[in-house]
Design a protein that fits this description.
260 residues, alpha/beta, 8 helices, Ribsml_uS5_D2-typ_fold_subgr, Lon_Prtase
Length: 260
């Protein structure tokens, strides 16, 4: 029987312990969520068989082109995410590992309630911003926004642009989109301020997958937006509703627009 020194036995035992710890680390669930590009929806059209924007109390117009809101999806709050999942996401452009607390607040049911509340607030602010821009009274004009299965505040900007395009277009008989597929993200306030939302790189992926060639992003998120934009997607920073409308008008006239 070969002789094994005490030093060799100790090294073998330590190595076994290290391997065991690495295995535990690799397969132990982490407080992390994996996010990836989600669905997009043309706010000028229908989603899930329902018209996204319905307006009564004022004339509306036919539109061309598309104004697409974008989303990200994420693993469920109770779904286990392991080190290997995080490592895989690190090397992909269509996945991102994010702290679970940054995506979900509480249980899945609580997260759904928060997202639904934020979506309603976003829709109310979008309606106020759009009607305020057009000089219309919310007492006479009713806007109904329907987008099943989507929560959060990040569609505010695109809802606002969609309402304006449905009623007034660019103010000169044309479309805000200029016939293009334009996507975007950003919160909106009743006075038209555009705010940051997060997840912009993944939303760019979703936008390009669904045919967008232009992407409007909050200016505060330009650093993330320009990190690795998909080929063929022009990324334009905006700070407000008026700024977004000005950018689209310049784009449609063939002028030079800002870029992240």
């Amino acid at each position: 029987m070969p002789y094994v020194s005490s030093r060799a036995r100790i090294l073998t035992l330590c190595s076994a312990v290290v391997v065991a710890l690495l295995c535990v680390a690799a397969f132990a669930p982490l407080p992390v969520t994996i996010a990836y590009p989600g669905m997009t929806a043309n706010v000028l059209g229908s989603s899930g068989g329902q018209k996204v924007i319905t307006i009564t109390g004022t004339p509306t117009r036919k539109t061309s082109g598309q104004l697409r809101m974008v989303t990200i999806e994420a693993t469920a709050p109770n779904a286990p995410v392991h080190f290997l999942d995080v490592a895989k996401a690190w090397f992909r452009t269509d996945e991102a590992a994010m702290p679970r607390s940054a995506v979900y607040q509480g249980s899945a049911k609580q997260a759904d309630q928060v997202n639904a509340q934020e979506m309603q607030q976003s829709q109310d602010a979008a309606t106020s911003a759009a009607l305020g821009h057009l000089g219309l009274s919310s007492k006479k004009v009713h806007v109904d926004l329907t987008l099943a299965g989507v929560g959060g505040p990040s569609a505010g900007l695109m809802f606002t642009l969609g309402i304006i395009d449905s009623i007034d277009g660019n103010g000169h008989g044309g479309d805000l989109s200029g016939g293009r597929v334009i996507a975007g993200t950003g919160t909106i306030t009743a006075n038209g301020t555009v705010g940051a939302v997060g997840g912009v790189p993944l939303k760019e992926q979703a936008a390009r997958q669904d045919g967008a060639t232009v992407f409007l992003t909050p200016k505060a998120e330009c650093a993330d937006a320009k990190a690795l934009p998909p080929a063929g997607l022009k990324v334009i920073p905006v700070t407000s509703l008026d700024n977004a409308l000005s950018v689209l008008a310049t784009l449609n006239s063939g002028g030079k627009v800002p870029s992240c």
